[in-house]
Write a structure and sequence with these properties.
The longest helix has about 50 residues. The chain has two domains: about 35 residues; about 130 residues, Rossmann fold. The protein is about 50% helix and about 10% strand. A five-stranded parallel beta sheet has the order 2-1-3-4-5, sandwiched between helices. By secondary structure, it is of the alpha/beta class. The protein is elongated.
Length: about 220
């Protein structure tokens, strides 16, 4: 009986919340301030490290994505020499319309430029979104060939800028980051047509510009 009573008595004992330990020594305050400053510096260093890592990894990731789509395009293309099969239309010198190519990859931009020049168009090239806006402000083009993955300003933002000022300007989007979501965003933003860069044929691009600009070449384009 005593053991049961003792157990019950022990169960009724309440543990009070311990009082906080207060230290009024100056060295403790200095140590606490140093620890807080050190923790803040560590957080800032961590944030800077993540930002630097993101800046370094983004160009590598974009290069890998473009390389992948370029390789898949080589295998999926029906004609490896499609560019050589394009017959340049015969336009008069006074009918040379200007097309602005907005593409950050220099090799791709050069290939587009050669294709459009052979088709009788004048060509300007912008490597970034901001350069494209500057170029359009100084010399408005008759049509635009637009990539989506651009530095500084992406293609969707450039497209919105164009549509806010020139709602009827033909804008053909050709991108390696082709997806249903991106296609929907581009079309909602006002794109005339959206092409998959990995499988788009030169004849398709030329036909789209000829159709949008109301030009009929004397020679038919090869498929």
């Amino acid at each position: 009986m005593r053991s049961r009573r003792n157990i019950g008595a022990k169960a009724e004992i309440k543990i009070e919340h311990p009082r906080p330990i207060v230290c009024s020594h100056r060295s403790a305050h200095v140590l606490l301030v140093c620890l807080i400053l050190l923790s803040l510096n560590l957080v800032s260093l961590y944030d800077c490290t993540l930002s630097l890592f993101a800046r370094l990894i983004r160009p590598m990731w974009m290069f890998l994505v473009r390389s992948f789509f370029s390789l898949t395009g080589m295998f999926r293309s029906k004609s490896p020499h499609a560019a050589a099969n394009v017959i340049s239309p015969d336009f008069s010198a006074n009918d040379r319309l200007n097309i602005l190519i907005i593409e950050d990859d220099k090799v791709t931009a050069h290939a587009y430029g050669q294709l459009l020049r052979k088709a009788g168009y004048q060509v300007n090239i912008a490597g970034t979104g901001r350069d494209a806006i500057t170029c359009m402000e100084s010399s408005p083009p008759d049509a635009v060939l637009l990539d989506i993955m651009l530095p500084e300003l992406d293609g969707i933002e450039v497209l919105r800028w164009i549509r806010a000022r020139t709602p009827k300007l033909p804008v053909v989007v050709c991108t390696a980051a082709f997806s249903p979501i991106l296609t929907t965003l581009a079309l909602m933003g006002g794109a005339t047509r959206v092409f998959d860069k990995s499988v788009a044929r030169p004849s398709e691009l030329l036909h789209e510009f000829d159709l949008a600009l109301g030009r009929r070449p004397k020679h038919s384009l090869a498929a």
